[in-house]
Design brief:
The chain has 14 helices and four strands. With 320 residues, the protein is mainly alpha-helical.
Amino acid sequence: MKNKDIFHRIRRVQGLNALVPLIVIVIFISILRPSFLTGDNIMNVFRQASVYAIMATGMTFVLLTGGVDLSQGSVLALCCVTCALSIGATENMWVGIIVAIFTGGVIGLLNGVVIAYMKLPPFIMTLGSMYMVRGLALWVTNSTQVSVKGYSVFTFIGQGFLFGIPFPVFVFIIIGAVAALFLTYFATGRCIFAVGSNKESARLSGVKVEKILVLVYTLSAICVSLAAVVYLSRLTAAQPTAGESYEMEAIAAAVVGGTSQAGGEGGILGSLIGAVIIAVIRNGLVLLGVGSYFTKIVVGLIIVLAVALDVTRRRLAVNK
């Protein structure tokens, strides 16, 4: 009986079902390319997944309220640029990291305020932000890259290893764990789910909906700024064109991980697993010699299929 209870509790963990497609994909790629399961390649997959995972963590907050953040990729680029410029000007990586977080936080705050208080649809607001922020990144850098070299401690964030595991893996696990604890054990976290389930019901229950919306878009952008730090420390160069379509990767990771695009249902664990799935697919396609253009097709199909499954599941639940 106890074993059944344990198994039942494991099945109820939000997002854990995403492990099934991950295992299937890993087995399939391993059969076609045995080199996929080499230690170096697996570590490379997790390193690549780190940026997607951190961004997907932020995207999960937004999706849980029934919104979307299309500006993530552009925010990543601008945060990389401001971080690199700040480090170059002050020769202090902590100043660069703080400036990157501040940059992301301000953009997320502006998105949230306009969406919450001016009632602009999230799709329209973040689409506009995507273009404006990208333009700002190009203007600040004059469309040229900004290099960050000679800072071994900073590059360790994206390139280093701890106990034989890429350091970025620890970064996205820590960020994911904090986010999961926040959603699960804090009242504000539960309010995020309430807003996504039904805004008017949440408002009548005393939830300050507007403040929750401002919070989730701010958290989304802050997560992106942290992802930008990892991204920059790995490549040691900030490109104003960095992060193009990364918001789609984040959405795909969150949706594949079980977060409903309609809001009110999902979790961080599933999004982290979803990010690993995206990284595995990308890596597997490279090993199979498939062109990079095909990767975009696959990611697009993943988003469509995951949303279609979610819609179908919801309809079946209503009809029961």
